[in-house]
Design brief:
The protein contains one helix and nine strands. With 151 residues, it is an alpha+beta fold. It has a domain of 101 residues: Sandwich (Immunoglobulin-like), CATH 2.60.40.
């Protein structure tokens, strides 16, 4: 009986330590801010990969827009870059200054040639980022409008 209590106490101690360790080292998603660089590697399979000349990703805001950021951008387009090899593109871009705070999710991937374009919006990987922007700009109130010209 006394060994049963000992093993139960040891088991409880190990389970508690495992739970504490797993939550202590859990990764917190990184928050980006305006001016930070977002980089992606985009890969395509199939024929004609050598004809592709560009690729881009577009992330859209999926959380509510703050009242004082209604005029800010609610999407991030990452398209600057070049083909690393046929069918593989390395793209990156800085997050624009007036990008609204919130959660952004991969919305569409584009690729193509100078003459043909393709968009992919289904079957995309689940990529979500958070943007924190402390800037704000509320829409000013319109005070008046007067015509000042004479016929």
């Amino acid at each position: 009986m006394k060994y049963t209590k000992f093993f139960f106490a040891l088991y409880a101690l190990c389970v508690g330590a495992a739970l504490t360790t797993s939550t202590a080292f859990a990764q917190v998603p990184t928050a980006y801010k305006p001016g930070d660089t977002l980089s992606f590697t985009i890969k395509f399979d199939g024929e004609g990969l050598e004809k592709l000349t560009n690729a881009s990703v577009n992330l859209t805001l999926t959380s509510p827009v703050k009242e004082d950021q209604k005029a800010f951008l609610t999407y991030i387009n990452v398209s600057a870059g070049s083909g690393a090899r046929p069918g593989v593109f390395e793209v990156s871009a800085k997050i624009p200054d007036y990008t609204a705070s919130g959660t952004y999710t991969l919305h569409v991937v584009n690729t193509g040639t100078p003459y043909v374009g393709f968009s992919y919006s289904e079957g995309l990987p689940s990529i979500t980022i958070t943007v924190i922007n402390n800037d704000r700009f509320e829409k000013p109130k319109l005070r008046s409008v007067e015509i000042t010209s004479k016929p």
